[in-house]
Amino acid sequence: MRTRITAVVLAAALTPLALTLSAPAAHAATPAVPYDFNGDGRTDLAIGAPGATVAGQARAGAVSVVYGSTIGPKTSTRTLLTQNTAGMPGAAEADDAFGSALASADLNTDGYADLLIGTPGEDGSDTNDGMVTIVWGTNSGLSGARSLFSFFSADYDRYGQALAAGDFDDDGDPDVAVGSTGPITVSLVDGPITRTSAANGGSGTRWSSSYGVRYLSSGDVTGDGHPRVVLHGRAAHDGAATALADMEIGNYTDWLQELPAGYVSAVGDIDGDGHDDIAVGNDRETSADPAGALGGRVTVVYGGPEGRDPGRAPLVLTQDSAGVPGAAETGDRFGSGVSLGDVDGDGYADLAIGAAGENSAAGAVTVLRGSASGLTTKGATSYTQNTAGVPGGSEQGDRFGERVTLTDHTGDGRADLSVSAPGENTGDGAVWSLRSTATGPTPTGSTSFGPATTGISTAGTPGYGTALTS
To answer: Looking at the keywords, is Signal present (predicted)?
Structure first.
């Protein structure tokens, strides 16, 4: 496996192109946590619907932001974003796919998190150049926008198909990592980035195959306060390729640690040792991906001072693993979505796993607990639309669990569970939110809403929840 992925990297890697422009600006207020757009101490729920029709333009795309409250995401306090929103760069056009990827950080360090939105279908100097939009957080929520710097538009397409944000070059300012296709497949845009700042430089390189970098996540795996980036692409034989990168290093493809191959990932400290751990989801069958498994798999890689902890074997999970609810069956897509967050406030990150193909793609979600010894299947819980208290009912093709997120919408110190089902109502899509208690997420009092509730047209197949707060 190491030889295969290394070969992909060596065949594709280029010396990164680098730009150094103006000097960084002075630091401002204590940065907000990601996705807390109004600074109230509660994370907000951002929902991408890249298939949404806007002003008659099919698949132009839209994003709903539902603000957190003491009872969870509250649809009466929300913001609807499209490229036709006043002050937004560009305009809604067919196939732009605005909302395909989402990320957040307090880019201008003003105490309010900002939202990054990927629009990989945006046409620029050529078709599908792609674009990333920054929408600014304020004390009243999201307001005002600008486009993210795009240094190498002649050398990539679908810029913004994957996003992550954090201080990746370890200079004290938040940066943005962007996935794309073409000669450059991953770019680093240096911070600080403000409403009016000039570009501070950036770099780009090629990793993986012509499919490009399709998903990004990040976290402090080494425990040194400097986040690393998890890259997801495709290998030459069309299987997944996944690696951990240190983007502080000029040629960051020279510092890549191979990870178990998958299509999505989440990063968080499962065992409380100060090193974030990585959960990699691969929802494919072995017939579609050599690194897949019957029904899909999730692999947990524990972090250490040098990245991967060489003294701990990765934990491989399927629905046939002891203590995991259900059974591995063809097409379950276990690992379609993964998220790490502390659902019970015990100081250990817990893992939510989506299985969007379960029961003829009705879908299911499993939550496993973190502990001082690592992830455990003891006390695992499973949720579907047929779980008592969860709104709706499981139907073929809903894809409940396509994306999952564990984040604190109520401000009580426990991560709440939000789940998307982009196939709900023949492609309209919907999102569920389950509030967490001292014993974990509870279906009691859970809520659900679809695109119409937050102002998005249900014409066509908007795919509400295709992207979700990460």
So the answer is: yes
User: Positive or negative, the Cα torsion across 60, 161, 163, 195?
Assistant: negative
Assess contact for 316 and 299: CB atoms under 8 A. Answer: yes
Tell the residue number behind the tokens 């105490």, with chain if given.
111
Cβ–Cβ under 8 Å, residues 317 and 300? yes
Angle at 136 between CA 25 and CA 161, to 5 degrees: 100
pLDDT in tens, 77-136: 999 999 999 999 999 999 999 999 999 999 999 999 999 999 999 998 889 999 999 999
pTM for the whole thing? 0.94
With a CB cutoff of 8 Å and minimum separation 6, the contacts of 306 are: 222
Average of per-residue pLDDT across 357-382: 98
Per-residue pLDDT at 10 exceeds 70: no
- The answer to whether the beta carbons of residues 128 and 158 sit under 8 Å apart is yes
B/e letters for 35-50, b = 16+ CB within 10 Å, e = fewer, are bbbbbbebbbbbbbbb
Q: How far apart are CA 305 and CA 287, in angstroms?
A: 36
Mean of per-residue pLDDT scores for the chain: 92
Q: Which helix (H) or strand (E) holds 190?
A: none
Give the Cα separation of 302 and 157 in Å (integer). 34
| Residues 388 and 412: beta-carbon distance below 8 Å | no
Cβ atoms of 247 and 186 within 8 Å: the answer is no
